[in-house]
Amino acid sequence: MKNPVLVVMVPALNEEKTIGKVVQGIPRKVQGAKEVRVLVIDDGSTDKTKLTAEKAGADRVVRHSSNKGLGVAFRTGINSALEMGADIIVNIDADGQFDSNDIPKLIKPIVDDEAEMVTCTRFGKREFIPEMPALKKFGNGIFTSLINWLTRSKFTDTQCGFRAYSREAALRMNLFGKFTYTQETFLDLVFKGMRIVEVPCKVKGEREGQSRMVKNWLSYSTRALIIIVRTIRDYKPLKFFGSMGVASAVFGSVLLLWLFLRWLSIGQTFPFTSLILVSVLFILGGFILLVLALIADMNYRQRRIQEEILYEMRKKRFEKQVLE
User: What percent of the chain has pLDDT over 70?
Assistant: First the structure.
């Protein structure tokens, strides 16, 4: 990629104390980029986040009238960055946790055409591992292991928000989560065959500002898990519903076989006679789930066609806006 336009987007919610420093700290000259533009997405702040960002020199500040969630703010940022002519989009937090001087290192794999998405990893090098609460570190490990299992990858950090996206990745992303985007982007892009690489970066263990996008780790984990389950349902419907159907049918069949063997052995099923109905229900439920899996897989094929049409429409839309 030659002379790309780089847009650095900063989602923010009530970050007036740190947003100015973050915006001013973003380098306006980055090796490998023709131009650097700064975009701030104010997700319904009630303080002076928007005004502070504008005074600090942000090229564009987009504000939601109310707090809509980090996932929505991210999607707004991606579309706004594309409108600004971005060839590469870097997402960085507004609380001062990340070092903007790592941006050149983050975009290099995209510039060199080695990846469509590059993510900072806080755990890629032992000397870069930050101090963080044990519960948060454990949760990060669980989610990373889950993403690796689903995508058959070996990522070390799938929760970090400091990332770079190529224009192609940005155009192809279709996200639905309102609360967060970090796990969904991994699954969405991996399932679409996009190349993702990690770059170790040193991250501050103590934030300069308190995260207001993620207020409660338990709530975050629960909602993030729901987003992951829905993404798997949408992209792997045959496996998602089919595995449940097979499990249900097998359980019901084994239970029914055990009752039949008991009847052959002693001539009765008492006191487990009621389990005959239970086993039949499990077998029937499994059959229904298998039929649902086939229908869902058929719908997924239609979705792939629709996403390709959407990609072409977005590509033409943003190309037109850039030319204008």
Answer: 94
